[in-house]
Amino acid sequence: MAEKLMKYADAVKKFDPVIGLETHVELSTTTKLFCPAEVHFGGEPNTQLTPVSLGLPGSLPVVNKTAVDYAIKLGLALHCEIAEWSQFARKNYFYPDMPRDYQISQYDKPTNGNGYLDVELEDGTIFRVPIERAHIEDDAGKNTHVGGADGRIEGADHSLVDYNRAGVPLIEIVTKPIEGAGDRAPEIAGAYMRAIRDIVRALNISHARMEQGNMRADVNVSLRNSPSDPFGTRSETKNVNSFRGIEKTIQYEIRRQAAILSEGGEILQETRHWDEASQTTAGGRVKSDADDYRYFPDPDLVMLHITKEHIEEMKAQMPEMPRERRNRLKGEWGFNDLEMRDVLNADALDLLEDTVKAGASASGAKKWWLGELSREANNKGVSLEELPITPADVAEVEKLIADGKLNDKLAKQTVAGVLAGEGTPDEVVKKHGFQVVSDDGALEKAVDEALAANPDIVEKLKSGNMKPMGAIIGAVMRATRGQADAKAVTKIVMGKIK
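The line above is the sequence of Aspartyl/glutamyl-tRNA(Asn/Gln) amidotransferase subunit B; the predicted structure tokens follow.
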């Protein structure tokens, strides 16, 4: 049965939304957090295992130093206080994809705490998101439900468990309650998540591919009558794995909770699940409080001691942060705010930078990635980086244009050939015989024929009306099978009508 919803504009006018995000970032280490089992996406189920990741009796965990270093770098990027002494704890609960029946996490002594992240919104506004902690923990395995719709547990007749992911290192970034967001709460959450994604990629500590589950978020939403009132009861929508899904989850929960509260009802503190197909959240289980997990220090792991000297070592390895990089590239490329925003919205910054490094102009790279290639990606339902064309390929096409070997039409056909798997741009050009007609005699003949067939256009051109020039160029293009150079045609025409 469909839940009652209040219009979003009315909901945020009547209530003050408070949101919180718990972002799980899967680290790109080669081995798991507490054992030497290999980590790679897409392996055969239950092949990346050791006695530790299976929780077998007598197996003992050993901390992955690289994972700790990655956590320190992320803490620095999020302006956190990095604890000299931090501790792992056991978080006790039963779930079939957690073979030990407890998760090794951090509780009252996390590695990183009390930080913040400034995020830039669409209109250039900077909003500061407060960070409570960024702690280290290991991931659970993965349940696959068989027999139900869309792999969901509803209607399934049995479930399969893959423990490959069990023990993979995670950092969970927990915000403090985000207040003052108002009607921009969904936008702020989306901008924050994109900023986290950009940071962990810049640090090279995670692939941050949301569609592969190595970055996901639990989304907390509550409403109160005014900013001076205590926080309302929150819902927590689990494991949302798309930026758009996070924004839509917050919008839906604000509308749902506002409708309940307006009718005098009470919000149930529960976990919920986002359904992409119906664009709704659905109730799960009653939400547990921290006390219910019976945290206690893991007796098999000693405390982590992070010295000031080691923190300085990590600081020396920190790369340029995304916001500073964006501002630098914007200046180097000569883009205005709108052009740079288009690049960021298309998630094409890395692709443009690599294309420019390969020899293309910034404007040329932008034209291809945000034009022809963006349309191709949308048609196929994939990201730009998943297209079978590289920045080097795009730069090569741009060079062929600059050298006068391809015109725009031939360049598009060349790109289509690369996307179809026909090889590099140079190989596609040779295979199809793409070549701009540069022989003056052949072009002149085609121009003469076009002018002779269109005397009315010739008179308009002679009178100074240049609008019909496109018709002459089009006729020449047809005569040369699209292989004429438009600038050369224009030059020849102008010479003949004087």
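Note on the example: The mean pLDDT is 89. The chain has 16 helices and 16 strands.
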